[in-house]
């Protein structure tokens, strides 16, 4: 059975940093960013955590390799391919759409991931219960990681973030916080935080800003994960932060990314983190949070994906 070492130190260094932006200041709301984007140049953001339990399960199953799926800019496949290379494990990526070259795809190839393009119809079949069967005939003994590194193992890998933040509160001069705010693609990371809060008997509400339309089933997925964890389906709220669709961006979003980076030095990307922070700004400006509220914003990474969007961002800005 091949031995899969752990990804790195037990807990990567993910600092908590206060940011001050005019709209926060005016509303008297304090924001601390959990900088998961800083933990590792390749396994950045929530991916490190979402993959940790999957890699452990692959090790326990004696897997020969890892197989998963995603789009041509997928942060998940990027992290999986990087993990595979680092751990000496073969990886296979099943891709949405027609064959194309993106900075992410170039990296996947450089990391040694075997790629297969499924088209759109073929990719839609991923929801079928037997989807992986044919692939497992070809790649016998591989461990299948669900889309986005999801499922209960993905959520459980994010649970330790709750303790990690609590341990760091004094570094930003806080003794407690009122809420979490983060981008939600499948809702797996959010579910991990809700599980972490509930396990401690605490109810700091976790807000998920949807990166795609509400029809993408995040609410159903979070409910399912919490039931699988034998917990109650509560303690969170989803808001639509998608600005009209997954991956869509516009001039105000490009301007927002630029302004936040200019004022605070914090880099955001357009698909998840910038939209999540824009959605937060809306609620803060509406007076949704009381003065003095303290919010943890999870920077879930994804900056590798910003390379493909950079030209479009530049165009929108000039
Ligand atoms: C950068 C980034 N942030 C947030 C998310 C959303 O995470 P989740 O699917 O756990 O909701 C993703 C996608 O997985 C992502 O790549």
Automatic annotation (TrEMBL):
PANTHER family reported for this sequence: 1-AMINOCYCLOPROPANE-1-CARBOXYLATE DEAMINASE-RELATED
Pfam families (UniProt xref): PALP
Q: Which residues carry this modification: N6-(pyridoxal phosphate)lysine?
A: 47
**Top-rank taxon, per record:** Bacteria
| InterPro entries xref list | ACCD_DCysDesulf, TrpB-like_PALP, TrpB-like_PALP_sf
Residues forming the Tryptophan synthase beta chain-like PALP domain are 16-301
Mention one GO molecular function: D-cysteine desulfhydrase activity
Protein's name according to its UniProt entry: 1-aminocyclopropane-1-carboxylate deaminase
Instruction: Please tell me whether the keyword Protein biosynthesis is annotated for this protein.
Output: no
- Regions crossing the membrane: none
Q: Which cofactor does it need?
A: pyridoxal 5'-phosphate
Tell me which UniProt keywords the record has, alphabetically.
Pyridoxal phosphate
Stored SUPFAM superfamilies: Tryptophan synthase beta subunit-like PLP-dependent enzymes (SSF53686)
Which family does this protein fall into? Belongs to the ACC deaminase/D-cysteine desulfhydrase family.
């Amino acid at each position: 059975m091949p031995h899969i070492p752990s990804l790195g130190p037990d807990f990567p260094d993910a600092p908590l940093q206060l940011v001050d932006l005019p709209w926060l200041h005016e509303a008297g709301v304090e924001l601390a960013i959990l900088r998961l984007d800083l933990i590792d140049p390749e396994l950045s953001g929530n991916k490190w955590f979402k993959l940790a339990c999957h890699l452990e399960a692959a090790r326990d199953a004696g897997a020969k390799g890892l197989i998963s799926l995603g789009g041509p800019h997928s942060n998940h496949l990027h992290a999986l391919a990087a993990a595979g290379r680092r751990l000496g494990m073969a990886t296979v990526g099943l891709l949405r759409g027609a064959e194309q070259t993106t900075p992410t795809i170039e990296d996947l190839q450089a990391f040694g991931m075997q790629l297969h393009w499924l088209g759109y119809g073929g990719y839609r079949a991923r929801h079928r219960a037997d989807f992986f069967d044919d692939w497992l005939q070809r790649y016998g003994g591989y461990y299948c990681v669900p889309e986005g590194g999801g499922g209960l193992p993905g959520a459980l890998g994010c649970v330790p973030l709750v303790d990690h933040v609590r341990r760091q509160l004094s570094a930003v001069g806080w003794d407690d916080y009122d809420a979490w705010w983060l981008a939600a693609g499948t809702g797996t990371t959010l579910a991990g935080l809700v599980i972490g809060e509930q396990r401690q008997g605490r109810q700091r509400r976790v807000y998920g800003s949807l990166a795609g339309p509400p029809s993408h089933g995040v609410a159903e997925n979070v409910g399912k994960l919490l039931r699988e964890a034998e917990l109650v389906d509560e303690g969170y709220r989803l808001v639509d932060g998608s600005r009209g669709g997954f991956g869509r961006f516009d001039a105000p979003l490009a301007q927002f990314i630029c302004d936040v980076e200019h004022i605070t030095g914090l880099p955001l990307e357009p698909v998840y983190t910038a939209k999540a922070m824009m959605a937060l700004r809306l609620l803060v400006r509406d007076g949704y949070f009381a003065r003095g509220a303290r919010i943890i914003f999870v920077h879930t990474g994804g900056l590798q994906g910003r390379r493909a969007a950079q030209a479009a961002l530049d165009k929108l800005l000039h």
